[in-house]
Every structure is written in C-alpha cells, then in structure tokens.
Amino acid sequence: MSRRQFRVLLRDFLWRIVDIDALSIHARGDASALLGQIISLLIFLSLMFSVPAIYFSGRMAVPGQAFLIAVWTLQHFLIATTMLLVGLFAVLSWNSVFPDRRDVMILSPLPVRTRTVFLAKAGAVGAAPLLLLITLHALAGIVWPFAFNRYVPAQVLTDFASQPAMAPARASHMQQVLDHDFEPLRRSGAFARGGVSIGVLTGAEERVFAYGAPSPDSIYEIGSVTKTFTALALAQMVEQGAVKLDEPLRELLPPGTVERPFGAEITLLDLATHHSGLPRMPSGFQRENKDDPFASFSAADLYDYMARHGVKRPADASFEYSNLGLGLLGQVLADREHMDYADFIRREVTDPLGLTDTVVHLSPQQRKRLIQGYNGVSDGPDGFRRVSTHRYGDPVPPTTFAAIAGAGALHATARDLLRFLQENLHPGKYGGALAAALAESHRLRAEMTDSAANAAFIPPGTRIALIWWQTPDGCYMHGGAMPGYTAAVMFHPKGDWALAVLSNTGPGGLVDATPIAEHIRQRLEGLPALSLAPVKIPASGGFGGWLRLFGTYWVTMIAAGAFVYCSVLGLQGLAAELLPRQWFLQVSSFLQMTVFCVLVSIYFLQPAIVGPNLFDVHSTGPPGWSPSYWFLGLFQQLNGSPALGCYAARAGDGLAIAIGASVSVYALCYFRSLRKIVEQPDIRPGRHRELRLLKFGNNFETALVHFSIRTLLRSRQHRVVLAFYLGIGFGLTVFLLKSPVAREISSAPVTDSWRQVTAPMLAASMILTSFWIVGMRAVFSLPIELPANWIFRVLPLQAGSNCVTTMRRSLWALALVPAMAIASVVFFIAWPWQPAIEHLALLASLGLATTELCLQGNQKIPFTCCWLPGKSNMHIAFWICIMLILEVLLRVAGWERQALDKPSWCVAIALALVTCAGLLGWRVSHRAEADRHALQFEEAPSWQLTTLDLPR
Q1: What phi, psi does 436 have (nearest 5°)?
Q2: What is the DSSP string of 32-46?
Q3: pLDDT in tens, 172-206
Q4: In which element (H, E) is residue 781 found?
Q5: What is the spatial distance between Cα 890 and Cα 745, in angstroms, rounded to a whole number?
Q6: Distances (CA, A) of 417 to 278, 343, 511, 580, 878
Q7: What is the mean pLDDT of residues 913-933?
Q8: What is the four-CA torsion angle of 860, 864, 869, 871, rounded to 10 degrees?
Q9: pLDDT at residue number 620
C-alpha cells in the first residue's frame, strides 16, 4: 500500500464527510478557510463549556453529598453534551460514512487497491469524530479538571444504589428487616455516637425502636416537621371561624405595619403552601451568635422586615420554600390569640392529641432525654444551615427560636410523632372541629417544582396541601433538618401505614433521617430499597489529583463520543445489511431523522442529577436507560471512586458492543456492497401521482414557490438541516416548560402548566416559530445541486420585488403557516378560545416580522446558491444572541401574559408588530427595486482588490 495514496484518499474522504461539493468555487481553492471556520466554531463551544468552570472553582467546596451532587451534575452535563454533539455529527455525515456510488465510480478505475480505499475510508470515519472531540474540549479539557480538583477530604457516604425488592414488611417485622439492612452501617461505626429512633405503624400494629446511642423515648429537634403542626393549627382556627384561608396577611399584622398593596396581596393560604413569594430566610438576616443564630431574631425584627418587604403577592407566584413564610404564619396566628407560639401550639394541637413530649420549651425531665446532636456535612433542605463553627461530627448546642418558631422550634419523640401521624391517617377518630381540621390540612392546593421535590427524595409530580407534600401515589410526607438533627415523617392513607424517623446527626451524614425514611417506605411497599451501605469517596486535590482527573476527563469524553458515534454507525450498517439496497436507500432518510429525534429527545428529557434517589440500578427508568449516566459512572470509577460502579460496568459493556458491532457491519458493508452499488440502481423510479399545489401569485412566483416546496420534500440533506433547527427549538421549548430555572425567571405557576396561560408556554411558542423561520432561511442558502442551477442561469431572470415576493411566500408556505397551524391546534385544545386567539394573533405578527428580517441581504432563488465558509460567523452570532435573549424573552412573555387580560393591549402590540413587519417589507422591496441586476448564484468574498479571477 502506498503511503501517499493512503494520505490523499484519507484527506479526500475527510472532506467528503463535510460535503465539500456544496462549497462556493471561491472557497474550493482555499479549503483551509472551511477548516478554520469549523475549528473556530468548536473552539467557541469549548470556550462556552469552560466559562462555568471559573465560577465553579471559585466556590467553597463543601464536603458531603451536596458537593458530590453538584460535581456530578456538571460532569453529567459535559458528558451528555459531548454525546449529543458527536451524535449530531454522525447524523449530519450520514451519507458520507459508508461507501456510495461516488466512491466506486471514481476510485475503481484508479490503480488503487481495495484494501487501501477501505483503510483510508475507515481512517477518515474514525478521525473525523476524534478531531471533533479534541477541538471541542481543547479548553474545557484543561479547565474543568482544575475545577473538579478542589480539595475535599476523604468521605464515607451512603451508597448511590438500591437493594432488591422483597415482600411488603409489616410493623411487627420491620425491626428484623432493618437489623439486616443496617448491618453495613453498624460495621462502619456510624452508630458510635449518632443514631436513629424509628416509629412504624401498619394497620393496628405499632412499633418504636432505636439504633445507636438514642433510645425509643429520646427527644429530638424536629426542624421543619414543626410546620405540619403550624398548618394544623391554622386549619383548627379556620374551622373555629377565627381566620379564613383567603384572609390577607396584612390584617393579622400589627396595625400600621404595612399598607394595602396595589393588586394581589399575600394570604394565609399562600404562606401555608409556599406560594407567597417570600424568600427562604429574611434578606440581610444577621446571625450574631453562630451557635444559636435564630435566638436573636425577635418579633420586632420580623415585623420590621415585613414593613420593608411589603405584602404584595407576585403575579403568578410559584412554589418557593420559605421558612420565613411559615415562621411568620405561626407568629401572626399566635398574636391573634394573644399568646406565644409555644402556648398556642399546645392549646390547638398537642394537648387535644395527647402529645406530651412534643413541646417548644423542654422541662427539666425532658431535657435529660434530649439526645445530643452532631453536626452534619451539608445544608439541610429547610435552609437552617449547618453551624459554621463546627466540623462534621462535632457536637452542636441546642437551637432556640424567637419570632419564627412556627418554622422549626418543636421537639418531639418518635412515639409522639407516630401518634400524630396515626391521627392524620384516621382523622375521623375525634370528630368535630379537629377531624375537620385534619381533613382540611390534607386537601391538595398546588404542585411543587421538580427541583424542590427531587432534592428531598420526593418524586416529580408531588403536590402540596397545607404544608404536607403528597406524592403521585398518595403518600403524605415532610422532612426537617437542623444543625445537629434530621427528621422525616410519612403516612399513606391508602396503604394504611405511617412512619417517623428521627436522627441526631445533621443533614448529609450516614444516618440522615431522609434516606432512611425513604428506605423504610420502600420496604413497606415491597419496592427496591435505597441502599444504606457506606461507600468511601477518596480525597481529591493536589497536582497528582489533577493529573488523574485530566486523564479521566479525556478518556471518558472520548469513550462517550465513541459509543454514540459507533452506535449510529452500527445501526446504519445493520440496516444496510438486513435490507435490500433499494429498500435501505428508501428508509435511510427516515432512519436518519429518527436517530436525530432520539438524540435530541434524550438530551433534553433525561433528568438532571438532583438527589441520590435518582440512582436505582434495579430499575429500567432514568438513569438506567440513559448512556450518559453510564459514562458518568465510568468517570467516577476511573477517578478512583467506587460510587456508581454498576453504571461504569454498563458503560464498558455498551462501548464494547458498539465498537464491535460498528467495525463488523462496516467491514461487511464495504466489501459486500461494492458490487451491489455497481450492478444495481440506487432507487428505482416509482409511480406517484402528481402533487397538486396551490397558486402563489403569477406564473413566475408560483413556479419558484413550487420549486422550493418540492425541493424540501425530496432533499434529505435539507430536511436534516431544518430538523436540526427545529430540534434545538424543541429542546428550548422543553427547557422552558420543565426547567425550574425558567419557572423561577418567569414566576410561572407549576400547576398543570400546559392548561394554563403561562409565560413559559408563550415563550416556547415564540421560540419554536422563530426557529422554524430562521431554520428555513438557513436551508434556502444550501444548494440542492450546483450543476443544476444552470436552468435558472440561462433564463432572463432579473432581481427585484418579484424575487423578494417569491422568497417571502416560500417562507410563509414552508415555515410560518405550518408553525401557526400547529400552534392553533395546541392552544385551542389547551386554552380557552379568547386567550388562544389573542396569542395566535400576536404570534402571527411576530412571525411576519421575523420573516421580513430574514429577507434582508442579497437576492437569491432558494436552493440555487452555493455556500461560503465565512458565513458561519453569522451562525455563531445567532447562537450567542439566543443565549443572551432567552431570559429577556421570558420577561417579554410575562408582559404578554399580563397583556392577554386586556384586549386593547393585545391589539396595540399586534399593530406595532405588523407595522414593524410592513416597514421592513417596504425596505426590502425598495432595495430590491433599486438593485435590479442579475440574481446571485455564487457566494463570493468581498475582496479589497479587484481580481481577474484568471485560472492559475
């Protein structure tokens, strides 16, 4: 084999993957221009990947699961994005990977061996994605290992896995089950000082037991579980007629504290469902005594803060967990009854239920039973942060509350909490106002955000009643976390069970109450249970740690890219081997589009890492089916961490299968398909009825619009490019509708967002319509076949308003009208007819303005002009603008949401957009009439010197 022949063929095959035939003649003589543009785009993406690393590396590394979850989230994002980009590259180079008629007819007469052609083709196929990966991570592959190498000491955390399911356990057998499940914790020394008290109720069976230092009657700080008592006290007062749920908060504050706001104001129900818009804690909250930070925050401080903040309820206020809101609720209810919170909650809740050990202030005898708390390793979900002056495992002093006692001041035993849950499980026991209050506290009010749910071991779709969280299967739950304690309570009316778990270790430790309660719940329901086995995470930091992370990063990214590229290659080759050639060529385009849709859908629909409950190795759901999580496990294993080892095994198996299958089918296709390509036609012509299209003006305009429609329907390459834009638009649509970040920016409610007129829905329709129009304009710039445009060149066609009208109507027919048709169906089904019509009118006006913006520039007939590499600068600017204006668009959609309530505003906005579109259209037509020279069929660079373009 001649090395020179191999190098020439390798270079030629590499350029064919980019499809150099679509280039302008001005670019073919300088192919480095195209290469430079591609490399510049990839380096730009690498720079965008690297910028967040600077922010991340500047943050303090907090040990524990919270820090690991943050690191794993970023690592998963980088892996998933790499797999998406490599997969899209494989889809876009679909027609250039396997041998085709061009390879056979051009190379077969040359004195080159078949083996040389095969090796050169295979080398190009392997080198192209490798070059893509190297360029894409040129900067990120150096910066991110530095960011991940923040020094963190060795840790022992709960394993991120699950144990096999077993038969549903009863309360009488639960201690025996937990003795077996807790054995790894006991061997690790987790119960040396810390421990848990557990109460389980199934039917009439009740058991209370303990592990470690505590006893069944030990008293704990229960943190935010206090909120469930505050909510029940509110329901009690509602049943007694003392207050109303829709009563404004302003009326319960001391007179003169705040003035009545303009518009909606915060109600008691808003406080009890975390929909008040109040922050988690008061801004500027000063903790003079870090060992007891809440003792100095008095009622006067609380009311002074509310006087500055006000009681105006944000428009479409969404779920936002607020200790301030519940503490304020407890304070104003106690003030209404002219007593402090401790006496108020005793009179309304604990005394009627007989809960003698559930108190705010401990008696001397109860203080002896208060178990010592030990500092955790992370912040709790409540926002009661860990004590900064203590390290993990250090004893912490008790916490006292003043003004916001209703958010977390109670102490309790597991036995008392189990009795409290029993009354919630069977609220009809007492009858009268108390039974009605219990039922009222269980009535569902709204949905929680996915981020808040997953962060606390709660599945998406969880709804909130009066403080209680209800999962989709009907389980009510709540948790609590203090500097030295964690608590979790659950009850399930349909399953007739309840459980309470109290721990004397702060959040993030091995004996955190939240994962233990989730484990017990799964045992009660006979599900695969969250593993409680400890896993040692090695320390990180130092130059040696960076070297290991550097190698791990590159090996993982290359392996992940190779997996997705070989998977696409193997799928294409398998279809080519199993199907006759004519059938394969006919279904190839549909298979290509299917792969594209699958890649984009998986990337945007797979869950983010927000809690260890996401990892369930025995399930077929996410992330078990997602290869990006497999390679996250591989990343951890290569870095020396045993966590997620099961996913690393899946990554290795998947990579081996993908590479083996792709190499096998590629070799078979190459040697078995060469003769078929020569002897058989590509696709035999079939009998199709003529596609009758509508007229679009005069004969000239109709002919060119019909040409555009038929070209798009027949060209797979152009459909793929359009699908790329639509896929990105669809992904942003999913992001707007599902992302908690987008909801937070837009202040959108989370209750059935598809059925409500929300800012994310409005913004999503705008983005999808705009991407459709802009994508179609980009598709028009790519030629269908350059040698074929001689038909238009020889005709006496003149530039002018006719060509502009043709382009405009083509964009209307292929982009604006289909987008509006889909939007009409969606909005008329989901929304009432009046806001649907108003928004569709505004959307159509925006589409008209976007169309006119796309008509700016030189006059061309769609699909007839070649492409110049320098135009990719415009595409880079386009993506930068998209990233910068996304938040602005959400704000604009929020304003439109307010305008939909006022038809006159909608009319004014629509008229403004139509006027803008009219002015842009007049400008385009005026320039077209002023510049009536021949149409442009070549993209030529703007030379500073005039050249003769003589052949060299």
Answers
A1: -65, -35
A2: HHHHHHHHHHHHHHH
A3: 999 999 999 888 888 878 888 789 999 999 988 99
A4: none
A5: 7
A6: 29, 19, 19, 69, 57
A7: 73
A8: 30
A9: 42
User: Residue-wise over 673-700: b if at least 16 C-beta within 10 A, else e?
Assistant: bbebbeeeeeeeeeeeeeeeeeebeeee
Note the pLDDT tens digit of each residue in 562-576.
999 999 988 888 887
Output 605 or 253, whichever has higher pLDDT.
253
Instruction: Name 197's bridge partners.
Output: 210, 502
Phi and psi at 803, nearest 5°, equal -70, -40
Q: 456 phi and psi, to 5 degrees?
A: -120, 30
For 71-104, give one letter per residue: b (16+ CB within 10 A) or e: bbebbbbbbbbbbbbbbbbbbbbbbbbbbeeebb
Are the C-beta atoms of 440 and 239 separated by less than 8 Å?
yes
CB 717 within 8 A of CB 589: no
pLDDT in tens, 18-61: 554 444 444 444 444 545 555 665 666 667 667 666 666 555 44
Of the chain, the percentage scoring pLDDT greater than 70 comes to 69
Structure tokens at 366: 């109860």
Sign of CA dihedral 83, 89, 93, 99: negative
Partners of 497 in the β-ladder: 202, 492
Burial of residue 22 (number of CB atoms within 10 Å: 0-12, 13-18, 19+)? middle
Confidence of residue 461 (pLDDT cuts 50, 70, 90): confident
Beta strands in 51-132 (DSSP E): none
Given this model, what pLDDT does residue 735 score? Answer: 62
- Across the strands, what pairs with 370? 219
DSSP 464-529: ESSS-EE-TTS-EEEEEEETTEEEEEEEETTTTEEEEEEESB-TTSTT-HHHHHHHHHHHHHT-PE
Q: DSSP secondary structure string, 750-777?
A: -SSTTTS--HHHHHHHHHHHHHHHHHHH
Q: Which residue has the tokens 């993957």?
A: 17
Check residues 122 and 878 and name the one with the higher pLDDT: 122
Could you report the per-residue pLDDT of 734-790, keeping only the tens digit for each? Answer: 666 655 444 444 444 444 445 566 777 777 788 888 888 888 887 887 777 656 566
Q: Residue range 636-649: average pLDDT?
A: 81
* Residue 132 phi, psi (nearest 5): -60, -45
Domains with residue ranges and CATH for the chain: 1-157+537-684 (no CATH), 217-523 (3.40.710.10), 710-952 (no CATH)
Burial class (CB in 10 A: 0-12, 13-18, 19+), 585: middle
| Per-residue exposure over 380-412, b if at least 16 CB sit within 10 Å of its own CB, e if not | bbbbbbbbeebebeeebebbbbbbbbbbbbbbb
On whether the CB atoms of residues 897 and 316 are closer than 8 A, the answer is yes
What is the rounded CA–CA span in Å between residue 520 and residue 228?
21
Short-list 888, 89, 134, 62, CA closest to 557: 134
Contacts of 428 (CB under 8 A, 6+ apart): 435
Of the CA atoms within 13 Å of residue 432, those in its CB half-sphere come to 6
Q: In whole angstroms, how far apart are CA 237 and each of 234, 406, 431? A: 5, 15, 16
Q: Which two tokens stand for residue 114?
A: 């078949």
Could you tell me the two tokens for 135? Answer: 């360029």
Least confident span in 33-47, 72-86, 484-498, 501-515: 33-47
867: which DSSP letter? B
Q: What is the dihedral of CA 713, 714, 715, 719, to 10 degrees?
A: 20
Radius of gyration of the chain (CA): 33
Q: How many residues does the chain have?
A: 952
Nearest to 621 by CA among 499, 528, 496: 528
pLDDT of residue 8: 72
The more confidently predicted of residues 950 and 290 is: 290
Higher pLDDT, 619 or 528: 528
Q: Which residues pair with 498 in a beta bridge?
A: 201, 491
